[in-house]
Amino acid sequence: MTKPLRLALFDCDGTLVDSQYAIVAAMNTAFVGLGLPMPNPAAVRRVVGLPLVRAVAMLLPDDPGRLHAAVADKYRLAFADARNRGVNEEPLFPGMREALEALEDAGLLLGVATGKSRRGLVATLDAHGLLDRFCTLQTSDTGPGKPHPDMVFRALAETGADASGTVVIGDTSFDMLMAGSARTGAVGVAWGYHEVEELTGAGAQRICLTTDQVPGAVLELLA
């Protein structure tokens, strides 16, 4: 009898890589390019993980949708330009590579569900030599984005895992809400962009303070 498939589904920004400086810089460029005052960096970090236009709408709640779309377009151009010039800093969090290896050694499949574009996600993972580690890459390019569970459902369909054998690992309440809606396990990480209290309030079943705690937390939930 074959063992059921098990899947660890990671967020990217704030969970795998620390992309806050690149994100804030691109958002500043987009705002200034349209004659807007630069947003508060803390406010930008709070919307990381949401689909881009929705994130901009949260930063500019009193402005029309057409401006949100224009800012999003400027952001994409600014982020791509910075990447092409080699000035984007998206370092892998210390110990994350080893955590991924430990989960693979335990027989788990690895996947990503992120608010990044697919192009951006592929570039980020490839830069760290991790692209081949993940068997499913889910982005908000083709769906409603977090906290809607669509990305999880697509990951399950691609891998053949089921919700009971899947754990979402992320740094924001959006990740935890997505996991809850999809009825998967939910592990929050404390080194990202939302506070631990928000993660637990949104449904995190385990909190990891360091990357080396991730494998144990995931395996404990799946047990």
From TrEMBL:
GO terms for molecular function: phosphoglycolate phosphatase activity. One of its GO terms (biological process) is DNA repair. SUPFAM superfamilies: HAD-like. InterPro entries: HAD-like_hydrolase_sf, HAD-like_sf, HAD-SF_hydro_IA, HAD_2, HAD_sf, PGP-like_dom2. One of its GO terms (cellular component) is cytosol. This is Haloacid dehalogenase.
